[in-house]
Amino acid sequence: EMMLGSLPRSGAARSQSWTADPLLIIFVALFNFLVFFVMLNFIIAIIVESYLSTKQRLEEELAEQEFITDIIASMRALIKRLMHRWPTHTKLIDTLREGAR
Asked: Model-level pTM?
């Protein structure tokens, strides 16, 4: 019963009562305390690991940069588009939509 979270009922006789032994009371209290903190540690470890992996993925994300870096990247893309005579994004999207019909 203790494994499921409930304590055994006290028996009619004093010898059957789990509260009759003070060492058993201390053991039950320490056991519950220890199991609670071990489970709490597992949950915190899972949350922290998930947070760190998400934080690392955000730091590696190239699309989300600072303002100056975004402007420089946009200018480089514009220069490449003009040098290689690539179509604009809107023209490319319109052509793909027409081809899908």
From this structure: 0.46
